[in-house]
Amino acid sequence: MKKKLALLLVAGMTMASLAGCGGNDVAPADAAPAEEAPAAEEEAPAEDAAEAEEEAPVEEAADDTAAPAADGELVRVGFAQVGHESDWRAANTQNYQDTFSEANGYELSFVDADNDNAVQLEAVRTFIQQEMDYICIAPIETAGWDTVLQEAQDAGIPVLIVDRSVDADASLYETQIGCDMVAEGEMAGNWLAEYLNGEAANILVIEGSVGASATLGRTEGFNNIAGQHSEWTILDSQSGDFTQAGGQEVMESFIKSYSDFNVVVCQNDNEAYGAMDAMDAAGITYGVDGDVIIISFDATHDGLQYTLDGKINCNVECNPLQAEFAAEVIQKLQAGEAIDAQTVVVDQAFVAPGIESQYATTMTQEVLDGRAY
Ligand code: GYE
């Protein structure tokens, strides 16, 4: 295969340090040594020249995520994206499009599956037919991947599972890159326990999309902590599909069914916006000065604005800027280097002004100004 030849060629090329890649609140799953990546053709990061191997040329600064094939051809990457359901997703898509650009040595084929499993499977099969060099899949659901992953493997195309995870045999894909969803759910639960300090909680949960690892993990993590608190009751838990409309619809139906609740957990920011609209319409107050505590996930720019405004009490981050990790894995595979089986994108939580927490950072305007997505 063309790629095998590329691997051999790149293996003999000068290696340059890739310092600076991997900042941005993210870290590999295990303590990996300093990252190494092939110099892109004649390029090496100029700013890394001092640490680079002696023979590394320094004519031009290469983007950390650049990885043209050794023969100068663009590396062809197919990306089967979940859809466009949320602000998080939009930021994640933009990040992939920026990172896997032609200028960086890639030809990206992007498919928005619109949250439809069949469309996503079809997209992956099309990528296989098109003999992509690599396939990235952000799986809508965890289940149902074995057959198509086997097809990709049989075709010799490495697959990267990104953002969410699958329950398929790990030998069928190269690596998984994403946030630890169970840890996010536990962070939310631990913060709530600290905030309530023994007070009773009647909790409503607006879950994400059914069968998504982000939903399953956040639910499991939160329930792990809820199970330690006999003074907490989870009244109901329904899917809002990670959308604002879904969050609003579920909250409206919760308001009809339950009169006595004091915590609403929204598994992403867009759902929280919908839930706040529903509570506004019903005259229910929320946030630091209200009757209902709101917990959200993602910590996108608008979500953090609501947190700074005291409307969302606690917002657990999930960083959507993950494409550089996928690019790093592809660079290593191009160079025939070993890769980590998993990269965990590290998260933190943010709380509204006036709240002090050992689990979260108190929001400030400065934190918000630093949030690009
Ligand atoms: O939280 C949500 C998006 O998979 C982590 O999907 C992602 C989730 C994110 O729709 O906003």
In short:
With 373 residues, this protein is of the alpha/beta class. It has 11 helices and 15 strands.
Q: What do these coordinates show?
A:
By secondary structure, the chain is of the alpha/beta class. About 35% of the residues lie in helices and about 20% in strands. The protein contains eleven helices and 15 strands. It is elongated, with a radius of gyration of 22 Å. The protein starts with a helix and ends with a helix. Beta-D-fucofuranose binds near residues 85, 86 and 214.
Key features?
Rossmann fold, disordered N terminus, single chain, seven-stranded mixed beta sheet, 34% helix, 373 residues, six-stranded parallel beta sheet, binds beta-D-fucofuranose
Task: Work out the number of β strands.
Answer: 15
Strands in their spatial order, largest beta sheet: 9-8-10-11-12-14-15
What percent of residues are in strands?
A: 15-25%
The top-level CATH class of the largest domain is Alpha Beta
Number of domains: 2
User: What's the shape?
Assistant: elongated
Distance between the termini: 39 Å
Low-confidence sequence ranges = 1-62
Write the CATH architecture name of the largest domain. 3-Layer(aba) Sandwich
Residue-averaged pLDDT, rounded? 86
Helix content: 25-40%
Topology order in helix (H) and strand (E) letters: HEEEHEHEHEEHEHEHEHEHEHEEEH
- Helix count from the secondary structure assignment: 11
Radius of gyration: 22 Å
Distinct small molecules? beta-D-fucofuranose
CATH superfamily of the largest domain: Response regulator
CATH topology value of the largest domain: Rossmann fold
